[in-house]
């Protein structure tokens, strides 16, 4: 059995810990190093007690010499830091980034939306933005893999098939997304210290959230039409999960039944995508602690308008699970491995 060594850089955040919890069950992976900055010398079980007896290495500070000992580098770091690591990659290494460092294909877009200059511009062309259900086997040709953001994952999985099939208008798409507060990372308590996270619902990034760039880039990849959408994210009083409610106009000749058929046909072989019966009212509770995305198509009082519901676990399908799914696809492992 092929077994590869992996290093996780940024192992103590919510996404990093979730990644470890999945990888310890992956029969093809040996976790060689766990890296952090302020947690050097600690056991990862300090951050999650369920990892106490998993025989995992103590946390160390990242050193580029470790790249000689591993095949896979997972980075769950603040934006910009994976770009630096990408400069040291060896021929044997594959970098799988869970932040935004290799999501955008233009360095100018990265500067515009993240207010930072890209530190590894020459590596952008060596990278691929990989939503596994869309990317497929093209991922095998790349050594740097940018995993999608959690909001875009929930949005693109229902929208891209409909854009490809030219079944919906590319104008006036309205996207209303609500996420658990884990999506803001461990710093959420400092960032939102004036808000009661457990009892309030907050809109943020209105009109200009960074994920706008990612959503627009990927939708434009599948249509020659101008894309016009409005995306508003919200922070909700729950720890994990995302529910996106997407309002779209149907093109002439398409019905809600045809939309359901298009989605089912497109995602037929995508085992983590579940297209529910029309008008099913889904919730984040349906997908928590899974790598699944549940999608439902709902009618409105207008025949030419429908509502798409899409639910994922932001820490798994929107984060760690998707990274493992990409790894499985890249190396030809069973698509379910580590994700059952």
Summary, kept brief:
This protein is of the alpha/beta class and 340 residues long. Helix content is 25%, strand content 21%. The protein folds into two domains: 4-148 and 318-331, Rossmann fold, CATH 3.40.50; 151-314, Dihydrodipicolinate Reductase, domain 2.
Explain this structure to me?
The chain has 340 residues and is of the alpha/beta class. The protein has two domains: 4-148 and 318-331, Rossmann fold (3-Layer(aba) Sandwich); 151-314, Dihydrodipicolinate Reductase, domain 2 (2-Layer Sandwich), CATH 3.30.360.10. It is 25% helix and 21% strand. The protein contains nine helices and 14 strands. The strands form two sheets. A seven-stranded parallel β-sheet has the order 3-2-1-4-5-7-6. Strands 9-10-8-11-14-13-12 form a seven-stranded mixed β-sheet. Helix 1 packs across helix 9 (316-331). The mean pLDDT is 94.
